[in-house]
Amino acid sequence: MRGEHSDRPSHTILRAILPAAACVLMAHSAAQAHVVCGNRVFPTTLTMDDPGVSDEMSLPTITLTPTPSGNSNSYGYEWDKTITEDLGFAVNGQYLENLTPGQYSNGWDNITLTLKDQHPCIERYKHQELAWSIGVVREITGTGSTRLVNNGSIDSVGNWAPTFYIGKGLGSLHADSLRPLAITAEVSRVFSDNPSVSPSSWSYAASLQYSMPYLNQHIKALHAPQWVTRLTPIVEVAMNSPDSGGTPTGTIAPGLLYDSNNWQLGAEALVPANGGTRQQQGTGVIIQFHVFLDTFYKDWFGKPMIKKNLWQ
Amino acid sequence: MKSQKIAAAFALVAMLIAPAIVQAHAFLDHSDPAVGSTVPTSPAVMHLWFTQELEPAFSWATVSDRSGTAVSDGPAAIDPGNPSELDIKLKSLPAGTYTVKWHALSVDTHTTEGDFTFQVGKG
Asked: So what's the ipTM on this one?
């Protein structure tokens, strides 16, 4: 019955699939941000974080994923707040629903907190279009639905994840047609609070972006409708590899980002990256509406709480 | 359907957090001569149009030749009739490639900068 948890035979299958599916979905719930350095604007990515700290909000992030026994959907939120000019935190979570024939379970996932510090975009980095950050991500168990904990959909064990984020624009390439390209990446070591129950893991992700705004503003004016000049075709790859020796899981996510002055809309397909992931999910889709709060609010919500850069 | 209600609720909240008046980073919208273009003769003025209104005291642009020598005829100035337009008078430019560098402070205090090139004469 919808909205209720039932203990039917299919529940055994569900118990086997959901934790793994939840791990894949969790890879999409990490903090997200955008950053400007020199000519380069690194847009907000959907299945991974990027090397920025700023005031912004993702609401909603909708993920629709078919599973072998039905569908697993999530409706996520995220709020990013700057503490100083370089240091910020993020709060994010998602509402999950798992639909299988005769079975429906739903509820909130655990809340995840991120503390991230971005190295300033110094003069040398402006020319190199380089940005990087370090951070730590904490999943807070006990904040999600007890029902989802009990059926294994969400973690019962928390974890800490020190993370390194980097973004590099390729604007210095000689071939003009390649200069809009940029690469971002992140790598996390996920330390489980109880590895015997939930193994620690490595989490890694990368994106390849082709910025039409960069092409239009810095290389060659496009004689095209304005909406075309605001698009960024992108491919993201996000993987998680547990220490237990299990198969790494993750997705390859090709899609499009549209950036207005104040908000971003993104949509990507979620293609299983390998056979291990295909056993847990089919090709899904992720859609996100993202607001740059610093363009809306001039007060506390839109600027650092302390006007200071810890690096300077 | 429950999922549709949840999506609608998220969308509603998203709309509610957005106040009516907004400002943003000032990025280059377009220019004349256009980014990466080739013009047959020396333009008298380089026009830069931005996506936001600019703070005149903290927004500037330069035009220089391949050797880095400035070829502008005076400082850049905001168009009195359009606060999002920055204009730079140019000296008579011989054929060649020129680099435009701009620095913009939008009225909401976001700083952005960028550069591009254009050519005078045959491409």
From this structure: 0.84
